[in-house]
Amino acid sequence: MYKLLQRQIPNAWRRAARIHFCSVELFYSSMAFQATLRRLSLRVPSKMKALVYSKVGKVELQDRPAPKIASPTDAIVKLKYSTICGTDLHIRKGEVATCAPGRVLGHEGVGIVEQAGEMVSRFKIGDEVIISCISSCSSCEYCRRGMPSHCTTGGWILGNKIDGTQAEYVRIPHADSSLYNVPKGVADTASLVSVSDTFPTAYECGTLNGKVQPGSTVAVVGVGPIGLAVMATANFYSPSKVIMIDMDENRLKVASEMGATSTIRSGPGTDVVKEVLAQTDGKGCDVVIEAVGIPATFELCQRILAPGGVLANIGVHGTKVDLFLNELWEKNISITTRLVDAVTTPTLIKMVEARKLQPDRLLTHKFKFSEIEKAYETFGNAAKNNALKSDPHIQERLAFADHCFLHIKLGTMSDEVQPDADWTAQPPYQSASHRSDYVPRHRGSCHCGRIQYSLAREEPLASKYCHCRDCQTLHAAPFQWAAIFHKADMVFDNGTEGLAFYRSATRKLGHDLPCKVSCEYCRTPIMDEGRNMVLLFPTLIRFGNEEDRRRFRPQCHIFYSQRVVDIPDGTVKWTGLDGKSEKMDVA
Q1: H-assigned helices in 247-344
Q2: Dist CA 116 CA 220 (whole Å)
Q3: Phi and psi of 224, rounded to 5°?
Q4: What pLDDT does 415 receive?
Q5: Per-residue pLDDT at 189
Q6: Would you say 76 and 171 are in contact if contact means Cβ atoms under 8 Å apart?
Q7: What CA–CA distance (Å, rounded) separates 262 from 173?
Q8: Which letter does DSSP use for residue 458 in this model?
Q9: How far apart are CA 219 and CA 424, in angstroms?
Q10: Residues 439, 426: Cα–Cα separation, whole Å
Q11: How many CB atoms are located within 10 Å of the residue 119 CB?
């Protein structure tokens, strides 16, 4: 084992080693080698790109020191996706006193755990996580009362009091209670940035505070991402009517497509109060949600309430508003306000898993991370640009949120490695849902679990022990157990956006067949892909029983060039070079 770890990898392979990682389980030594390489490969660099609030009215992309573990409860997360919140725009305008110039912005994101403090027990390196907009210690007085937004060592600190998520890396305090695992089976993980803040805010401050009940009538004033998320979560409780009110025709169209009972376009010449009363038999609405944050909309909300109604305010008001107590007191009206606590995030994640909540419907724009300043301009002119949320790219992509919904992708395949445009429509990248004849027999995954696939055949076309130099270098083992299938026998169930491609013949990255395919995050080699066939590694397959495993038993050893060694196991052995092979005498 000592010699294996000390062996220097040839220069030509060093680039490949960053993409491919050990999958061998035949020898404990190679598993230890794999763990050693993973620890080395996941180290956080000293510098990173980050979006910084430099002065009032200006944000800019800068080189900043990468974060480090400051407490045993911290985790360092490499961002895949982030998003711009309306609050970030308020910060840029200088309207948030707690956020000083020089701060890295952003409090929403999806990423990969790169480092974890000694006291972090719920997450490990390589886990894909959703970052909560609220950091919670889970033990202070306020956290115990269900108010982590007022946590004495947390609360809303990301992108406010400490550096945030619009960067390549972010430090997450109290990681065990401030991160959530990405749910399995979600194809578009970029959309999960809205589970960081948008959906918890809408659900807690709007739907729950508003006491939406079966059969109630609901009006939502302000149809940005928050307003649309209120509509989506209010439908958990089967209201009889949901009326969406906004000045923007595009947003009202989106609301209709997402299931609004009716829409009202406000503005000059429209008597919104009269239209609401006409739709509610003159009574008004049982629940009215204010999701804008200006005096005019707060006043409108008061005038369309039914007796006994609840006005749930979500909008962030930068100035005082009028409260018509002379008209409200006799109608038994309740008014609620709240800062999101994100205590409902686990519930919302379950709703996403059950497809009761579809956050991907809120994403409208995508940007590279290098274009994040442009994304701010798009987001700041949401109505003009028909924007809800957008997607710039942090490792070359990021993702963004509130009156506009942007999604900026931070850490997937780089542009130079992107395969052909139609690659996802071909086996094995084609979804099983598009193949009525596809019945999975076996399932497998990479070591971190992001890449998942299934096989339709009960046994491979052939199985072998491969002794080539590629396997010895990339798998860090004397040989590798490999099984051959038709490409149509296999489909990826999850994680294709996290695949990396490498062609060993040319020593270049890219989906140029034949090539090696691996998980970009944990470096596990998934398969060798040819034009019509794939070569898989059975050590990654979850066999249901020993009989299934025996079906994959290797039928021979394949040696190349001068790497022939005596392995007296009775299995047929072949040796050859440049496509010429001959059977070896094993007597």
Answers
A1: 249-257, 272-279, 295-303, 325-328
A2: 41
A3: -90, -165
A4: 35
A5: 87
A6: yes
A7: 43
A8: S
A9: 41
A10: 17
A11: 12
The amino acid that residue 318 corresponds to is: G
Query: Can you list the domains of the chain with their CATH numbers?
Result: 44-197+340-412 (3.90.180.10), 200-336 (3.40.50.720), 423-554 (2.170.150.70)
Q: For 398, phi and psi rounded to 5 degrees?
A: -130, 175
**The two structure tokens encoding residue 222:** 């302000």
Tokens read off for 260: 């609004």
Q: Which helix (H) or strand (E) holds 550?
A: helix 546-551
Using the structure block, give the residue that is written with the tokens 């959906």.
199
Residues of the chain with pLDDT under 70: 1-43, 382-422, 432-436, 472-477, 560-566, 576-581, 585-587
pTM of the model: 0.64
Distance from first CA to last CA of the chain, Å, rounded?
31
Tokens of 350: 């379950």
Distance CA 555, CA 538 (A): 14
Q: How far apart are CA 205 and CA 195, in angstroms?
A: 14
CA–CA dist 276, 283 (Å, integer): 9
SS3 label, residue 387: coil
Helices (H) and strands (E) counted in the chain, each on its own, are: 17, 31
Locate 137 and state its tokens. 């210690």
- Tokens in use for 234? 């209010």
Cβ atoms of residues 197 and 133 within 8 Å: yes
Closest CA to 81 of 346, 405, 339, 381: 405
Task: Quickly count: other Cβ atoms within 10 Å of residue 246's Cβ.
Answer: 25
* pLDDT score of 265: 95
Structure confidence at residue 494 (pLDDT): 83
By C-alpha distance, which of 350, 522, 536 is closest to 451?
522
Only one residue has tokens 């009326």, namely 243
Provide Rg for the chain, Cα atoms: 28
Question: How far apart, in whole angstroms, are the C-alpha atoms of residue 286 and residue 519?
Answer: 51
- DSSP summary character for residue 501: E
- Residue 65 in contact with residue 167, Cβ under 8 Å? no
- Going by C-alpha positions, the residue among 126, 135, 109, 116 that lies closest to residue 76 is 116
Is residue 162 within 8 A of residue 169, CB to CB? The reply is no
- Per DSSP bridges, beta strands 305-313 and 285-290 are parallel
The rounded distance, in Å, linking the Cα atoms of 193 and 182 is 10
Q: Which tens digit of pLDDT belongs to each residue from 129-178?
A: 999 999 999 999 999 999 999 999 999 999 999 999 999 999 999 999 99
Residue pair 519/500 in contact by the 8 Å Cβ criterion: yes
Distances, alpha carbon 400 to alpha carbons 125, 342, 426, in Å: 25, 18, 31
